[in-house]
Specification:
The protein is α+β, with helices and mostly antiparallel strands. Helices cover about 35% and strands about 20% of the residues. A six-stranded mixed beta sheet has the order 4-3-2-5-1-6. Helix 2 crosses helix 4 (about 100-110). The model has no long low-confidence stretch (mean pLDDT about 95).
């Protein structure tokens, strides 16, 4: 989850347990443990998506999925760099499927990226295949809704990660520019 790359206590979610409910301990690897883990994961994922969609001045929720990374950590690194990129965020706001901005962010992220192996989708539109633009691909409609899905396959392994974020609009600048302490 990232809105603008800055950490904020305003966008924090905590889970606390103090035993006051009087329920017994949940033993690792028990059915109750797995049920709790699944339910907690669903709740936290839902909250993360809501935080991203409610970012300051946001007009679009963006979900970035990186697949085919050399490692899971590389996938997380690339997804977070794309999600933090002001150029990607403003391109989405402007409904411009600028694949160069996405690939640039992945490239500078520190993750292993072989440009000749990457494929990129905006929504379900393949716009780059094996490092080359797909002739005639029009991904603009995929950016026109309130939710935008970007998928980048690095073609280097089986690592996967997802980043939840939002666009940067004029209101983001206005809200933060007019904020005074």
């Amino acid at each position: 989850l990232t809105v603008d790359g800055d950490m904020s206590t305003n966008d924090t979610c905590l889970v606390l347990a103090n035993g006051a409910a009087g329920a017994g301990a949940i033993e690792p690897d028990s059915p109750a443990y797995h049920a709790f883990e699944k339910a907690l994961g669903e709740v936290m994922t839902g909250l993360a998506k809501q935080l991203a969609a409610d970012g300051e001045g946001a007009t679009k929720y963006i979900e970035i999925k990186v697949t085919g990374a050399a490692t899971r950590e590389d996938a997380r690194t690339a997804a977070k760099a794309i999600g933090n990129s002001p150029l990607v965020k403003t391109a989405v706001f402007g409904e411009d499927p600028n694949w160069g901005r996405v690939l640039c962010a992945a490239g500078y992220s520190g993750a292993f990226v072989d440009p000749a192996c990457v494929s990129l989708w905006f929504g379900d539109v393949l716009i780059v295949k094996n490092g080359e633009p797909v002739p005639g691909a029009d991904a603009r409609p995929a950016l026109q809704g309130k939710e935008v899905h970007i998928t980048l396959d690095l073609g280097a392994g089986s690592g996967e990660a997802v980043c939840f974020t939002c666009d940067f609009s004029y209101d983001y600048v206005k809200i933060n520019g007019e904020y005074h302490t």
